[in-house]
């Protein structure tokens, strides 16, 4: 695969967990919050199986479980069971007095599920003992803070020279490691890669999730225990925005992790040594970024796409304007508004940067203005179709190596050779008016031999 | 062209729809039922019953992070909020974004029902009517307000579950019907789980709204029952084998005596049903001509 054809693949939670060793998975499942998050990602049919099995304390044969569903769903049920077996949420056991193997829910996992259902508190430790925070942050302040932090990272990707001072070196390492940025040599500033362009077009929750996966992958190099990090992420995702939590019970690894999260904007902590922290919306939405969901309407959409291909964006951020100009020809810029037009040229440029049409369309959808969300389809169909057609346009030419035959003396010679090549599937193109034909490179020898044997004189 | 549209459709599928799911749970806590019950091996105490319901509610909340729940108690002849404690007033945009704290749900249900029992234990029941229709109407109001708060582009899928253990009086027929038609219009299905003998009224309510009606004598294995049949959402119930449906008794109850009538008189203006002829409609006060006595001029 060449550098231009990179397509950024984002793993979902389950496929990520599947890459982990069994021992780590077992340890992850000792935490109830982790179990809940993993459970929520199981296909719906599988979740219902688990619900039915949770309070039956004996292994059940697979054939029995399959008999719960109607025949048309059996395939799906099987896939779900296999997925759960692979994730070690379920395990196979021998049933006494029966040939068939049975399955049961992983004991640890099941115990945790029952705890959750009975209403056990899974939340992180609150800071009741510390009393009220006189420097407390309101919801909106937290939102602004998270946004600002994350935008800094994105801005760094777009204009590294300007943002250099605001970004920590660890973060730059992650960006380079994940292939979003590329560094020509140690002393140089990294530059954005095609993968990075695709990253910019993803919605925010997905960006954060992708980024976090990359972070977790490199945790060994940082001497951090993966399980502790995962546990903390899962606990954060069931916390409440606006509440403060205590750092008291956290391990050293988790405290270090907290400092990184603070930099990404996932938690707010006033000072490094503060004994309390506030999770932000981004931390809570983190796991949902593993699925390609529509952003949970935060009413922050700012894009209007008209049927005449004109795009109006109500924004004053340089970053957004930069991202928009990836696929938009900017016409006017005002203090609070940018107007641009989607043209064949502008889309073509985006495609050259290996951004795909579906990424552009999902970007338009994800950032649509509330007024546009009320319409169906959200983005005008003409615009969507045209963008796809423009992408298809690039695939019109395909290259084949071949050998040209021309200057035939008679039309008959041409016909004989053309028929032979066609019959054997060696012909690429032929024109009887100009008596020219092209055969494949591999077929050239065969056609030549045939011609020598069958020359009509 | 066709080929490209096909590609296009498949690209569309990758975007997962996000829906809020709201479960409106109505449970019966009438003191006449729970106080008078002697302990047999089969029956649960109110405490155990509430715990069962809590496990069911928590398992619903565990299914998805956008799942939300309202719990109402039909107590004596009125309805009370169990969770959220502040009821409809607690609904705001912020509450939509927060993840639900399941331990909070459980403790709210327990404390509110305790408070409810303590407050009402001294009062005597004046009329023997059920608080069910009131609870039903309240839950629909809640769902309606919720719907208004959901941001554009996100849908709200609501359904109700009534767990009933007291007989329903057919004098409340009109309230039930009004509630169920309102629910039908909002495509909210009402499931009922009956712990006593069949009630044709509740059967009608479920069949109008496309819900699931099951009668379960006694309390044994109530939790398994709820998890098996009432946990799956309406649109995926078709995946699982379902208990056989019983035929629905569609008789209406009459406005004059509250009896179930198969054949009767209907007011031509307001469609009220009467088992006997009345010259003036009780509901809309339309005056009817007396029937001709067969005397011809």
Automatic annotation (TrEMBL), chain A:
InterPro entries assigned: Tfb2_C, TFIIH_p52/Tfb2
Highest taxon of source: Eukaryota
Biological process per Gene Ontology, one example term: nucleotide-excision repair
Subcellular locations according to the entry: Nucleus
Keywords: DNA damage, DNA repair, Nucleus, Transcription, Transcription regulation
Span of domain Transcription factor Tfb2 C-terminal: 386-452
Glycosyltransferase found in the keyword field: no
Gene3D superfamilies xref list: 3.30.70.2610
Single GO molecular function: ATPase activator activity
A Gene Ontology cellular-component term: transcription factor TFIIH core complex
Subunit structure and binding partners: Component of the 7-subunit TFIIH core complex composed of XPB/ERCC3, XPD/ERCC2, GTF2H1, GTF2H2, GTF2H3, GTF2H4 and GTF2H5, which is active in NER. The core complex associates with the 3-subunit CDK-activating kinase (CAK) module composed of CCNH/cyclin H, CDK7 and MNAT1 to form the 10-subunit holoenzyme (holo-TFIIH) active in transcription.
Protein's job: Component of the general transcription and DNA repair factor IIH (TFIIH) core complex which is involved in general and transcription-coupled nucleotide excision repair (NER) of damaged DNA.
UniProt record similarity statement: Belongs to the TFB2 family.
Name assigned to this protein: General transcription factor IIH subunit 4
Protein's organism: Oopsacas minuta
TrEMBL record, chain B:
Chief location bin: nucleus
Domain of life according to the entry: Eukaryota
UniProt KW keywords: DNA damage, DNA repair, Metal-binding, Nucleus, Transcription, Transcription regulation, Zinc, Zinc-finger
Cellular component per GO, a single term: transcription factor TFIIH holo complex
This protein's record includes keyword NAD: no
An annotated Gene Ontology molecular function: zinc ion binding
Subcellular location as annotated: Nucleus
One record GO biological process: nucleotide-excision repair
Database matches in Pfam families: Tfb4
Family note: Belongs to the TFB4 family.
PANTHER family xrefs: GENERAL TRANSCRIPTION FACTOR IIH SUBUNIT 3, TRANSCRIPTION INITIATION FACTOR IIH TFIIH , POLYPEPTIDE 3-RELATED
Quaternary structure, from the entry: Part of a TFIID-containing RNA polymerase II pre-initiation complex that is composed of TBP and at least GTF2A1, GTF2A2, GTF2E1, GTF2E2, GTF2F1, GTF2H2, GTF2H3, GTF2H4, GTF2H5, GTF2B, TCEA1, ERCC2, ERCC3, TAF1, TAF2, TAF3, TAF4, TAF5, TAF6, TAF7, TAF8, TAF9, TAF10, TAF11, TAF12 and TAF13. Component of the 7-subunit TFIIH core complex composed of XPB/ERCC3, XPD/ERCC2, GTF2H1, GTF2H2, GTF2H3, GTF2H4 and GTF2H5, which is active in NER.
Job description of the protein: Component of the general transcription and DNA repair factor IIH (TFIIH) core complex, which is involved in general and transcription-coupled nucleotide excision repair (NER) of damaged DNA and, when complexed to CAK, in RNA transcription by RNA polymerase II. In NER, TFIIH acts by opening DNA around the lesion to allow the excision of the damaged oligonucleotide and its replacement by a new DNA fragment. In transcription, TFIIH has an essential role in transcription initiation.
Protein name: General transcription factor IIH subunit 3
Organism for this UniProt entry: Oopsacas minuta
């Amino acid at each position: 695969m060449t550098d231009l054809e990179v397509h950024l693949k984002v793993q979902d939670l389950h496929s990520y967990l599947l890459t982990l060793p069994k021992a780590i998975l077992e340890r992850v499942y000792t935490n109830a919050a982790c179990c809940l998050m993993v459970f929520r990602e199981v296909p719906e049919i599988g979740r219902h199986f688990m619900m039915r099995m949770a309070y039956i304390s004996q292994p059940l044969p697979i054939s029995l479980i399959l008999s719960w569903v109607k025949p048309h769903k059996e395939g799906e049920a099987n896939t779900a069971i296999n997925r759960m077996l692979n994730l070690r949420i379920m395990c196979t056991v021998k049933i006494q007095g029966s040939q068939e193997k049975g399955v049961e829910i992983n004991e640890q996992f099941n115990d945790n599920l029952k705890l959750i259902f009975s209403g056990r508190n899974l939340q992180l430790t609150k800071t009741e003992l510390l009393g009220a925070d006189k420097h407390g942050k309101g919801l909106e302040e937290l939102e602004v803070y998270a946004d600002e932090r994350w935008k800094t990272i994105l801005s760094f990707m777009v204009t590294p020279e300007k943002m250099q001072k605001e970004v920590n070196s660890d973060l730059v390492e992650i960006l380079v490691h994940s292939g979003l940025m590329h560094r020509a040599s140690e002393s140089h500033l990294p530059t954005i890669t095609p993968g990075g362009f695709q990253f910019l077009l993803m919605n925010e929750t997905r960006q954060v999730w992708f980024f976090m996966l990359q972070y977790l992958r490199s945790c060994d190099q940082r001497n951090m225990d993966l399980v502790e990090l995962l546990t903390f992420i899962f606990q954060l995702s069931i916390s409440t925005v606006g509440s403060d939590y205590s750092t008291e019970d956290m391990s050293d690894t988790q405290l270090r992790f907290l400092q990184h999260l603070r930099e990404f904007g996932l938690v707010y902590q006033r000072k490094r040594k503060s004994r309390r922290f506030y999770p932000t919306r981004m931390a809570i939405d983190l796991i949902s970024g593993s699925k390609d969901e529509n952003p949970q309407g935060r009413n922050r959409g700012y894009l209007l796409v008209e049927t005449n291909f004109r795009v109006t964006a109500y924004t004053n951020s340089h970053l957004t304007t930069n991202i928009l100009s990836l696929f938009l020809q900017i016409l006017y810029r005002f203090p609070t508004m940018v107007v641009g037009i989607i043209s064949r040229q502008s889309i073509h440029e985006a495609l050259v940067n290996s951004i795909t049409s579906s990424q552009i369309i999902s970007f338009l959808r994800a950032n649509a203005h509330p007024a546009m969300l009320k319409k169906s389809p959200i983005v005008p169909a003409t615009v969507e179709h045209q963008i796809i057609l423009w992408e298809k346009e690039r695939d019109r030419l395909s290259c084949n190596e071949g050998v040209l035959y021309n200057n035939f003396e008679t039309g008959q010679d041409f016909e004989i050779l053309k028929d032979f090549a066609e019959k054997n599937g060696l012909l690429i193109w032929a024109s009887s008016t100009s008596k020219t034909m092209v055969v494949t490179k591999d077929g050239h020898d065969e056609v030549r031999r045939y011609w020598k044997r069958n020359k009509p004189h | 062209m066709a080929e490209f549209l096909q590609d296009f459709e498949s690209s569309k599928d990758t975007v997962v729809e996000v829906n809020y799911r709201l479960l409106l749970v109505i449970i019966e806590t009438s003191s006449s039922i729970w106080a008078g019950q002697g302990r047999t091996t089969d029956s649960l105490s109110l405490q155990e019953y509430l715990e069962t319901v809590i496990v069911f509610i928590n398992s619903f909340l565990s299914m998805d992070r956008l799942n939300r729940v309202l719990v109402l108690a039909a107590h004596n002849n009125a309805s009370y909020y169990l969770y959220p404690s502040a009821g409809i007033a607690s609904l705001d945009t912020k509450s939509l974004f927060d993840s639900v704290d399941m331990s909070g749900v459980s403790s709210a249900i327990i404390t509110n029902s305790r408070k409810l029992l303590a407050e009402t234990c001294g009062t005597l029941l004046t009329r023997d009517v059920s608080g069910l229709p009131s609870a039903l109407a309240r839950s629909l109001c809640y769902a309606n307000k919720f719907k208004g708060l959901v941001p554009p582009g996100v849908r709200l899928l609501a359904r109700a579950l009534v767990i009933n253990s007291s007989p329903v009086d057919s004098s409340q027929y009109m309230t039930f019907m009004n509630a169920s038609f309102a629910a039908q219009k909002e495509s909210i299905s009402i499931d009922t789980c009956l712990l006593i003998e069949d009630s044709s009224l509740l059967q009608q309510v479920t069949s109008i709204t496309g819900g699931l009606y099951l009668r379960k004598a006694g309390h044994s294995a109530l939790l398994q029952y709820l998890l098996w049949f009432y946990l799956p959402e309406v649109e995926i119930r078709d995946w699982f084998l379902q208990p056989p449906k019983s035929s629905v008794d569609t008789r209406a109850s009459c406005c004059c005596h509250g009896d179930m009538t198969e054949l009767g008189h209907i007011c031509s203006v307001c469609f009220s049903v009467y088992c006997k002829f009345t010259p003036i409609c009780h509901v809309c006060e339309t005056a009817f001509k007396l029937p001709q006595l067969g005397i011809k001029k």
